[in-house]
Amino acid sequence: MENFYSSKEWDAIKQRVVEAKQSAKALVFTNGCFDILHPGHKALLEFAKKEKGFLLIGLNSDDSVGRLKGVGRPINSAEIRAKNLLETGLPDAVVEFTEDSPREIIEYLEPDILIKGGDYTVNTIVGAPEVLAKNGKVLIFPILQGHSTTAIIEAKEKNTETN
Fold first, then answer.
1. What is the three-class DSSP state of 67?
2. How far is CA 36 from the centre of its chain?
3. Average per-residue pLDDT for the chain
4. pLDDT in tens, 72-104
C-alpha cells in the first residue's frame, strides 16, 4: 500500500522525511493505535494538518496494540488501520512501529512538531523532551468528549449483552 511503511521500512520513510525537510517542510508527527477511526481521531488529524508540514502518523503494530489494549485488540489489522487513516486524505504517510512506545521512531525521525491528544501533558508525552531540545514544538489537541475507541467497543458489548 502506497504511503504505508511497515516496521521494516524505517529507512524508506526516513528518506521521505529528509526530502520533505529539504523542501522546507516541517515533520509533523502524531501516533496511536487508531483501531476504530472515529471523529476524535479525524479532528486530531485535521488539527495536525493545519501545521502545514509533512504529516506522518506513527501506528502501533498489531502486537503492540494487543499488549497495550488487551485481549481482542486490535479490532482492525495495521494494514486496515493505515488504509483508513490514509483515506482521510490528511496524513502524508503512516509508519508502523512494534514497540509499545513511539520513543524509538521519534528519536530516529526527529519530528519538528509532535502532537498528542488532550489526555496527555507535555510532561507525559513520549518524545517531547527530545523534540523540545531541538527547538521543536509539542502541541496538545483537546479531547473531543464522547469519542474513544474503548468507549465505542464497550458500548457495543453492553448493547449486545442487553439484546
1. helix
2. 13
3. 90
4. 999 999 999 999 999 999 999 999 999 999 999
pLDDT grade, residue 162 (50/70/90)?
low
- Look up residue 104 and give its amino acid: E
CB 106 within 8 A of CB 114: yes
Cβ contact 17:26 at 8 Å: no
CB 85 within 8 A of CB 35: no
Q: If you search the block for the grid coordinates 493505535, which residue do you land on?
A: 33
Give the domains, in start order, of the chain with CATH numbers: 1-93 (3.40.50.620)
Q: Read off the pLDDT of residues 13-44 as tens digits, 9 standing for 90 and up.
A: 999 999 999 999 999 999 999 998 989 899 99
Q: Which stretch of DSSP H or E encloses residue 31?
A: strand 27-32
Among candidate residues 103, 84, 111, 83, the one with its CA nearest the CA of residue 13: 111
Helices and strands: H and E segment counts in the chain:
7, 6
Query: In 3D, which of 129, 147, 137, 120 has the Cα closest to residue 52?
Result: 137
Task: Give the per-residue pLDDT at 18.
Answer: 97
